[in-house]
Amino acid sequence: MRSVKIENVSKQFGQVYGVNDINLEIKAGEFFTFLGPSGCGKTTTLRMIAGFYYPSKGKILFDDRDVTRLQPNKRNIGMVFQNYALFPHMTVDENIAFGLQVRKFSKTEIQYKVDRIRGQVHLAAYGNRKINELSGGQQQRVALARALVIEPDILLLDEPLSNLDAKLREETRIEIKRIQSELGVTTIYVTHDQMEAMAMSDRIMVMENGLIKQIGTPQEIYHQPEDRFVANFIGETNLIEGTIQAINGENVQVRTLNGHLLTGRKQQSSPSLTHMIGDKVFISIRPESIQLGTGDNTLTGKITFVEFTGISVNYIVDFTAFSLKVMIINSYDQIKKIGEDITINMAHDSLYLLGE
Ligand code: ATP
């Protein structure tokens, strides 16, 4: 269990930057996720930590040890990939034992370690099964056992759930999280699935175009996105364009493009926002934070779309210059129809202001 420090690291492929001057610190024992769209630099960063790529610039440290140019097999890292990379005709135990044999452990030690880890990934009775006789979720747990049996300082997981169907994905996600917290191994997880990132991580790093957009806990990233990219990428959000009209203490009044006045709270930690009268801003409001009826920031608009998902009734409501997605959770009220007027309100605290 070690910390990982990345200091001013860039990786160039010819003219293209895989990542560009990134800095971050992953704490010992943390479950840390790299999240972002395809091509943002997640895999490049992971590969530099594993030692498959060397940075063009900057340093990588495990605790205080500089590993920037150390070979992969000298880093004591466990890795799990999207395609499990198991030996299909060998048994579960033979697959798990592989890394221990390479490291020249004795037969008794190998059997002891393999039995123990097989129990931890809930495959106790499967030691003699062939890999091609297992389900995708079970295979992924074998891959996890194989990575963990060498007692790595750091576990790297690169989209390990992408080949599984939705139900199995969720089950395996819970399993990985359970095993990780039981063993307490520093874990770096790569995904482009924001739900997965939110559900599993202690902290998330959101990336775009080789740059870090934000690092924070799932709650910070969800409730205090630092810019429009993060607000849009994590969950759903409504963005309303406007101009700051007045500031009274903690309250900021924004005039929207069609002249509505909406009041939100001043943001303590939004680097993209200066809070000056006349500034152009975007109000971010989550669909589930909007309520029906009157209250703070009351508006009336016309329904242009409605759907019932079981958990919620979702409306799209038109307010001329903008429309809002509204999610009413667990409601037994009559569902309104397309074309009807609807009155909604948004609590001051739920309006989040972002700069341009
Ligand atoms: P994905 O989710 O699709 O795997 P990613 O976020 O992992 O994407 P990277 O694979 O890290 O993204 O790629 C970051 C950028 O670096 C991309 O523009 C990519 O085209 C480029 N890149 C990555 N590896 C190479 C390489 N070996 N040669 C040239 N360019 C590369």
UniProtKB/TrEMBL annotation:
- Quote the InterPro entries the UniProt record gives: AAA+_ATPase, ABC_transporter-like_ATP-bd, ABC_transporter-like_CS, ABC_transpr_MalK/UgpC-like, Mo/tungstate-bd_C_term_dom, NA-bd_OB-fold, P-loop_NTPase, Transp-assoc_OB_typ2
Task: List keywords of the entry alphabetically.
Answer: ATP-binding, Nucleotide-binding, Transport
Q: Does the keyword Transport apply?
A: yes
Annotated GO molecular function terms are: ABC-type transporter activity; ATP binding; ATP hydrolysis activity
Single GO cellular component term: ATP-binding cassette (ABC) transporter complex, substrate-binding subunit-containing
PROSITE patterns the record matches: ABC_TRANSPORTER_1 (PS00211), ABC_TRANSPORTER_2 (PS50893)
Query: What are the ABC transporter domain coordinates in residue numbering?
Result: 4-234
User: Could you tell me the superkingdom of the organism this chain comes from?
Assistant: Bacteria
Q: Which residues form a coiled coil?
A: none
Q: What is this protein called?
A: ABC transporter ATP-binding protein
Per the UniProt record, the source organism is Lysinibacillus fusiformis
